[in-house]
What does this fold into?
Amino acid sequence: MTTSAPLDTRIERILIPADEIQRRVKELAEQISHDYADSDLHLICILKGAYFFCTDLARYIQSPPLSLDFLAIWSYGSRTQTSGEVRVTKDLDHSLKGRNVLVVEDIIDTGLAMKYVLELLKARGPNSLKLVTLLDKPARRLVQLPLDYVGFTIPNVFVAGYGLDCDQFMRNLPYICVLKPEALPR
Ligand code: IMP
Ligand code: MG
It folds into this structure.
């Protein structure tokens, strides 16, 4: 699917078109369905960025029983770089004890936010804890994390769309785009 609507003037270029995202999300769902064929699966969607990815992924996963919960976090720092200080703004509704947990994230950049999240969730006693990220931006990584499933590895550019925001806007774009330098949040 290509878009015929004019692009937002803040967009420099489309990095990943909508049809490529959907194709890859389906592939990830098939892999996950296969890997969890003999167990339960509890998805933790990290709000807000992973919301679009998580809903598509969950729809494509074919291995019930699947359950889902939401964790909202706020990472401090400048708009384009986290400091590693994270605050939970909406905690999980359900216990993780004995569950096979798969954390669903939009992007791993420095890795600091996810390091905090994984440590928090590990302390709650899941049977297993894995991570799927739609995007991996390895150039700025500060902490090493086990990335169990990765959608796309991208260069060191600030992206928006498909859940990722530019100052809270552009999350609803069906593609992932690179923003013009002057449009970047400061
Ligand atoms: P990290 O702690 O540096 O790995 O990244 C934490 C969060 O920063 C991610 O979950 C995103 O919400 C946000 N982030 C990092 N890179 C981008 C980007 O290119 N566009 C939009 N948000 C981003
Ligand atoms: Mg995020």
Q: What stands out?
A: The chain is about 20% helix and 35% strand.
